[in-house]
Specification:
InterPro entries: LysR_HTH_N, Molybdate_resp_trans_reg, WH-like_DNA-bd_sf, WH_DNA-bd_sf. The structure is a single chain. β3 and β4 form a beta hairpin. By secondary structure, the chain is α+β, with helices and mostly antiparallel strands. It has a two-stranded antiparallel sheet. It has a single domain, classed as Arc Repressor Mutant, subunit A (Orthogonal Bundle), CATH 1.10.10. The two termini are 15 Å apart. The chain is built from four helices and four strands; from the N terminus they run ββαααββα. The radius of gyration is 18 Å and the shape is elongated.
């Protein structure tokens, strides 16, 4: 008795740096939320994440990147905030480009799966 089973290859991408994980989808979402909200505090709230954890992730990314991905804006009227640097915006773009190529490859390989 044979039934046709459907299989797919799933991949999860993260980029490592010598000192540990540099970028994964969670950090990319954090960067996107900082970009959208203009603040680490609001980005953390959007993600139901503690501010402290978000801040630590930003610090970690900034230390592991060639140049900082997020810069803090000093308070003034209406308070400070944060914004992505050009490197931060590029990190999002590059991550999604690499992820797409890997997922496209996995999709092609899926068609060759036979057990």
């Amino acid at each position: 008795m044979s039934t046709d089973k459907k299989y797919s290859i799933e991949v999860r991408l993260w980029i490592e740096e010598a000192e540990g994980p540099f970028l994964g989808i969670g950090k990319i979402w954090l960067l996107e939320n900082i970009q959208k909200t203009g603040s680490i505090t609001n980005a953390a709230k959007e993600m139901k994440m503690a501010y402290r954890q978000a801040w630590q992730l930003v610090e970690e990314m900034n230390q592991r990147a060639e140049s900082p991905l997020v810069e803090k804006l000093l308070g003034g009227k209406g308070g400070g905030g944060a914004r992505l640097t050009d490197a931060g915006e590029k990190a999002i773009t590059v991550f999604y480009e690499v992820e797409k190529r890997i997922k496209d490859f996995a999709q092609k390989e899926t068609q060759n799966l036979k057990f």
